[in-house]
Amino acid sequence: MLGIGLAAVIVVTGVIVLPRLRPPGPRPAFQLPVTCEETWVLGTYPGHDDFDIDFFPTSGQAWGRPVLASFGGTVTEAGLNGTLGSRTPDNPKGPHGTGAGYWVKIDHGGRWETVYLHLLEPPTVEPGDRVTTGQRIGSVGSTGKSGAPHLHYEQLRAGAKVESHFDGAPSGITSDNREYSVERTSRNCG
């Protein structure tokens, strides 16, 4: 009887009890999501969204370059988001698709996540897989809504995008109010 009365009080008063979310933990020691010792251009442009980073190599072709986990964790999503389009190394000016194309999302614990978009082929990992820092998760491509081969990358804290840090330092990509870029050399040496 007491249980029924308590339920009635909750319904009548409109009180909803939700679990309290823990605050995010400390930032993981993220590394650039590209091969050790390579230098890449990290850029953004108006309309790209604050903190979104596009990676382009400073030398050589982007197509097919390895995309690496920037820190260890558990893959929560991997596969196709939107439509592929038909931009490939053999048809680089083909029509673009929609959404992220082939992509991966990794949970690093402490409410930290990373996402990797526009991969060339289906990811080499799937949901539930544990990955380590520097593990290959895919290849640079131009699937989804992408104008050229590159890696689109984001770091999220408690579900919100934040400025990415690599090797303990801020990336320098913070807003999309203008087109700008910085160069960084990967220390993701596994």
UniProtKB/TrEMBL annotation:
CDD domains, alphabetized: M23_peptidase
Chain intervals for the UniProt region annotation (Disordered): 80-99, 167-190
Top-level taxon in the UniProt lineage: Bacteria
Biased composition (Basic and acidic residues): 176-190
A Pfam family per the record: Peptidase_M23
All copies of domain M23ase beta-sheet core, residue ranges: 64-162
Transmembrane segments: none
PANTHER family: MUREIN HYDROLASE ACTIVATOR ENVC, PEPTIDASE-RELATED
Protein name (Swiss-Prot/TrEMBL): M23 family metallopeptidase
